[in-house]
Design a protein that fits this description.
The protein has about 190 residues and is mainly α. It contains nine helices and no strands. The protein has two domains: about 100 residues, RNA polymerase sigma factor, region 2, helix turn helix motif (Rna Polymerase Sigma Factor, Chain: A), CATH 1.10.1740; about 80 residues, Winged helix-like DNA-binding domain superfamily/Winged helix DNA-binding domain (Arc Repressor Mutant, subunit A), CATH 1.10.10. Helix 2 packs across helix 3, helix 2 packs across helix 4 and helix 4 crosses helix 8.
Length: about 190
Amino acid sequence: MSSRSMTFYEDDEDRVIAVQVAAGQKDLFRLLVTRHQRAVYGMGISFFRNREDAADFTQEVFLKTYKNLSFFEGRSRFSTWLYKIAYNTAINSTTRKKECASLTEEEIISANDTPERSLLKQVARSAVLEAIETLPERFKICVDLHFFYDRSYQEIEDITGFPVNTIKSHVFRAKKILREKLKEFDV
């Protein structure tokens, strides 16, 4: 679920659940996991490029989140706080493997596509992901969080610690680099 498709009600509900879990209603934590597991796993895939490491990463992030829930003050969205934990966990990890793409083929290929169209989508997807991989790490994380995780510049600042103007510059420069690398695909 993208951050912008999450309603204010759901975000407020996350805050309430987090407070209740921190106060001792530990069984409610599963609700937060259910709501955010796919996004955290997706971030794991973006960093580690394989399902096994992404699954381990997801488990580690939720374990850290659970242990640190008493430190969630509610000044930011719960999802932003969770993404900061996830981002820091990924950055501090020493394992970086290249295998899976950040978007699954099922999300890109629809049942109505012709075989030719499916192949074109796969080739374009591979080219985009390969081009993103060549970006400097600071550009890549800003692009991932902004475009794949639908995070605002302010949320990216909260997650990465980069100033908003730096993030805007990174995204702008990354788009320029990607446009140049992908101009043969006319994207």
